[in-house]
Amino acid sequence: MPMPQQIYFFATCLVDLMYPRAGLAGMQLIRRAGVEVIYPDNQTCCGQPAFNSGYRDEALAVARAQLGCFARDIPVVVPSGSCAGMIKKHWPELFAGQADESEAVAVAERTFELTEFLVDVLRLELEDLGQPTKIAIHTSCSARREMGVADRIESLVAQLANVEVLTQDRKAECCGFGGTFAVKQGDVSGAMVKDKTDALRATDAAKVISQDCGCLMNIGGAFEKQGDGLGTQHIAEFLWERTNA
Amino acid sequence: MSDNKKHILGRLRSNRLHAAAAPEVYAKSLDWDQERRIAEFTERMQAVRGEVHRLKADQWPDWVKQELPKRELRQVLIGHGPVADTFAAAATDDIALKRYERPIEDWKDTLFDEIDVALTGTLGGLAESGSLVLWPDANEPRLMSLIPPVHIALLRADRLFDNFARLIASENWASRMPTNALLISGPSKTADIEQTLAYGIHGPKTLITLIIE
Amino acid sequence: MSEAHTQTREFHERIDAALHNDQLRQNFRSALTGIMARRAEQFPDDVQLQALREQARMVRANALVKQPQLLEQLEAKLTENGIQVHWAENPEQANQIIYDILHAADAKTVVKGKSMVSEETELNHYLEKRGLTVIESDLGEYIIQLAKEPPSHIVAPAIHKNRREVAGLFKTFHPEIPYTEDIDTLTQSTREILRTRFAHADAGISGVNFAVAETGTLCLVENEGNGRLSTTAPRVHIAITGIEKVVEKLSDVPPLLEILTKSATGQPITTYFNMISRPRQPGELDGPEAVHLVLLDNGRSRIRVDHELLDTLRCIRCGACINHCPVYVQLGGHAYGTVYPGPIGLALEPQRIGIDKVGTLTSACTMCGACGEVCPVKIPLPKLINRLRAEAVNGERSAAPISGRGSLRKSGEAGAWKVWQWLYRHPGLYRLFKLAATRLRFLTPPSLGAWTRYRSAPRPAARSLHELARREGFRHE
Lengths: 245, 213, 477
Fold this sequence. Notes:
The structure holds 3 protein chains of 3 kinds.
Chain A lengths: L5 E4 L3 H5 L2 H13 L3 E4 L8 H5 L3 H12 L8 E3 L2 H14 L6 H9 L1 E3 H8 L11 E6 L2 H6 L3 H9 L4 E4 L14 H4 L1 H16 L5 E4 L2 H13 L5 E4 H9 L2
Parallel strand pairs in A: 1-2, 1-3, 3-4, 5-6, 5-7, 7-8
Chain B lengths: L1 H12 L20 H14 L3 E5 L4 H11 L4 E4 L3 H9 L5 E4 L8 H6 L3 E4 L3 E3 L4 E4 L15 E7 L3 E2 L2 H7 L9 E5 L4 E2 L7 E2 L6 E7 L1
Parallel strand pairs in B: 1-12, 2-3, 2-4, 4-7, 5-8, 7-12
Antiparallel strand pairs in B: 5-6, 6-9, 10-11
Chain C lengths: L1 H18 L2 H21 L3 H20 L1 H15 L1 E6 L2 H14 L4 E4 L3 H5 L2 H7 L3 E4 L2 H9 L15 H11 L9 H18 L2 E4 L3 E3 L4 E6 L3 H7 L3 E7 L3 E2 L5 H13 L6 E5 L13 E7 L3 H4 L16 H4 L4 H4 L10 H12 L1 H4 L11 H5 L6 H14 L16 H15 L1 H13 L10 H5 L10 H7 L3 E2 L1
Parallel strand pairs in C: 1-10, 2-3, 2-4, 4-7, 5-8, 7-10
Antiparallel strand pairs in C: 5-6, 6-9
Helix pairs in contact in C: 2-12, 16-19
């Protein structure tokens, strides 16, 4: 796809409220590449939490409220694999048979996960200005399987000369977040995030990077609770920090 | 119970599904030559602890005769037909030959408890999966390849096929399925305890394929 | 309503027990790590894997479309071949049919090969209550029969036991054998124990992996040889299978066989592939005099009515979804409390048994998609599980052929989603909410139930992205 002049940034509810610096970094990376970033004021949530809990009417109502925010034919960039996946893969089925189905499908078709957009569309080139460091990458399951963009975060980080990437055991295994799963099956989720944090800690990395804030909230929260010094950071914030002079 | 059938089929017919695209013919084209087929078959078979030996057509009876005492195999089960007859003609007195000639019910205990090794032919082999193909019949019944702890199977090199799909198609199996058709790809094995492989759980612990050229 | 609460409570009790059993979790973790690695080794080329999956999907989808014709063709062909076909709508009928056959044949002892369908019908229990001796002959099945436990995995039924636990069972039930934890020796002992049973059993019962309509052939996949023994040595063989196992043509079998064994256990092929088309013919010296096939519906024809849920029926029972499920590896199979555990269990069991009975299973999924990625017949498992979650809380308007639709709807939860929806549909209100959340973030409760048992409490940022973006001069509209 040719370089767009403008894009919409769909922050997602989690980034907007809990990880705004990750979102801001994503917007700054895109702006620095010469593309105008538009933040629609009325955006809220893609509807995923309700959709995954079986409350499809509620999910549809909230998803529908987003359509007007992203009306023009420009890319919608989402700093989250799971929210991008919700829009791209599940909006078409959620809106099936509805009057605004074609609008929803149109938005889905021009939706990109952030790392996917940075690599495939912007062909972002990065110059590492940071100190040498070791990191581990945790790719969210939705980025890996639903969106199929697991290699984009890897290729972005590979451009950073001073960053060594360490690989965790069972890297494709879910961290146990799963949205409401973490509440409904709290103890199973706890056991899963314990295994995930153990695997990440064993890599000797200084920091864990991911393209999804849900995973980061889960993994980072567990590190904190375990009293571990290991930090977590969204890929956008990590890239911006290391490349912004 | 014919009501059951009517009800089940009735429910299935109540919902006409759209015709799916017809399956493509499973045509993984390998087109290996015989030497390659032998190599692939051997590698696969050995990977699951199957023994493979290449012998000339006139060598194999002697090979078997020499091998049996080395492995302390005395009671040899044979069937009828060319493999059995050739071996019977060549066998010496130290080998106790037993022919499978009565219904199993008449000598079950002997078969289960006394036979050391069975010698059979095969219909052919599959290179890609390392499989022997058997169509057991009145001459070489089904239990020959299953009950004795050792099974020696003769495989004609020119009867090695690339894979199962090829064999089914080229020999037109669909029109002439036998009572029982078997693919045997190694000695009997299990991994039911700790996913650890152990051989000889119910069938032969040793499977020896003699590729006859 | 109370039934729904009970199943949820009981599920959580079983989960709690599993999570506190470190040995069990270690057994699963180590076994499944090995199986996943072996499966991956079988598919070095992703392009070929995807082509094979598509092939297998089409074979199964085609068979489901033509299912009624194929079942009739199968029956006709089997009958012509001398194999008797019986139809059962439910487990009771299937068990009764099998008992009647055994009774008529004056059979007292039965050896069984592995069959998950017979677990559905609890056949062993039924026959034992009527005085028959039933011996499971698959090593894993034999182990759990000794332990009086159901299978914890559909392919590896005793996967939850380690060698010490197996050795302990043998010590209890076979004190005549010297105690050993050596797997080879345990395997040899089982061979000796079961051999006499095989030699003297009156009847054999097995499952079926594929039933070929074109030729009237029952196909069985196995490694041990117990399946061949059960179907060859006794004078009667009874096969039991679900009606979805029928495939159209013999040429459909090779791709299914290849992807089944590679997906299930990471083997290019199993030791034995056993194709049975007839009972013993005149002049033949072994094989059963009589062969029967029992075709069990047990909810399958009902599932087929729904164009989305129908995909569940493509399953070839390889267990790959189970092996790759990050929840299953934590819990093991028994925690699910159903015949089929793991992702396929989440999708199938609520449809088969009812959402009011086991719908709460669908909560045991993070939607990570690992199951759907490895499924050899491309069943969209996460999508089916999501659909069932919707049926569970909002089924009253649906026509889905599932009992207990809507039975897991709780007014508190439903109300919370209504409020959520109302808030997120009104951007002005949402902004007010964010303002409160950011400015009053010091009020965030430090304890949030299960979440904070394992993690620190999340806290809203001081300023939302909405505010930061404005401050940084981004265009907003």
